[in-house]
Amino acid sequence: KSKQSADTTADSSPGQGTDKHRDETPSKKKFCFKAAKEHNIPEDLNKILENKVIETVSDLYYMNMSVVEKTCLDGADGEGIVSKSVSSHSDLIPGVYEGGLKIWECTFDLIDYFSEADIQFTNKTVLDLGCGAGLLGIVALRGKAEKVHFQDYNSTVIDEITLPNAVANCINGGNRVGSKNNRKTSKPPAKRPRKAECSPDALAKCRFFSGEWSEVSQLLLSSKPFSKYDIILTSETIYNPDYYSALHDTLAQLLDKNGRVYLASKAYYFGVGGGIYLFEKFIEERNVFRTSIVKIIDKGLQRYIMEMAFKDSS
Ligand SMILES: C[S@@+](CC[C@H](N)C(=O)[O-])C[C@H]1O[C@@H](n2cnc3c(N)ncnc32)[C@H](O)[C@@H]1O
């Protein structure tokens, strides 16, 4: 299955309902931001993939979203984000659901960029910030990162999508460990993962967090020992200007002094108002990071890859 036709791919700006919700949600001060939580990896890896259908995109395994949606509607979604997203016809409900159930197209831009620019993950500590499906972190894991942490706003996304995706990519080329019961792969994976394949051991390098950025940042900083990240990856996370301050401070608090952020974004997010220029301006004003646009994808609405580093870094 090609990445363009992946049925979970959100290939445009937020859904129709976004404007409506934004109108009904006057200011970020009224949002009830989600507390941070670490999600432990269950011991029984088979259970994580139970009732899931595995598909492939860009040589990576991911959970079929229609099936996840169904199990969520049947009760697996403690946050109720699937029903809220369906009933509001929206991929983003500020402060409630932040879009992690879909794979957004800039994820693939960043994955392509890693190969083109030969970005090295070997022995690096990596954070996939606003991870959704977590494909960026999984690519880093395959690239022999020392550790990879995944963060999403929604705990349902981590439990039902990110964690299963990491497991599927780590265990034996996406095949279920042990029993074949309930195995519902829609078709055998078309290709085996290229390069270094993940192993169950790779899963031990992963940690998973949900919650709002400032909250997760506090949780990480208070965990001892905490070491800052060499690389922070983040795709389609700058759509809402209300979150820029929290995002900026999180990056500033969690990035190693000589670390790099690779950020992918569309030029502009209709209905929400954020975009690459506004974020660039925000970063400039804060005067903490230097930025450079390292790639422009000029198909329809322009998309960008930005590299960020501390102003005083080497
Ligand atoms: C549009 S989704 C993109 C998901 C994924 N990176 C991709 O490219 O497919 C935006 C992600 O940013 C995260 N996010 C957005 N605002 C956030 C906030 N204020 N605090 C924590 N996470 C946030 C959400 O978890 C969500 O998954």
Automatic annotation (TrEMBL):
It comes from the Eukaryota. The gene is Mettl18. Its main location: cytoplasm. It is found in: Cytoplasm; Nucleus. Belongs to the methyltransferase superfamily. METTL18 family. Keywords: Cytoplasm, Methyltransferase, Nucleus, S-adenosyl-L-methionine, Transferase. CDD domains: AdoMet_MTases. This is protein-histidine N-methyltransferase.
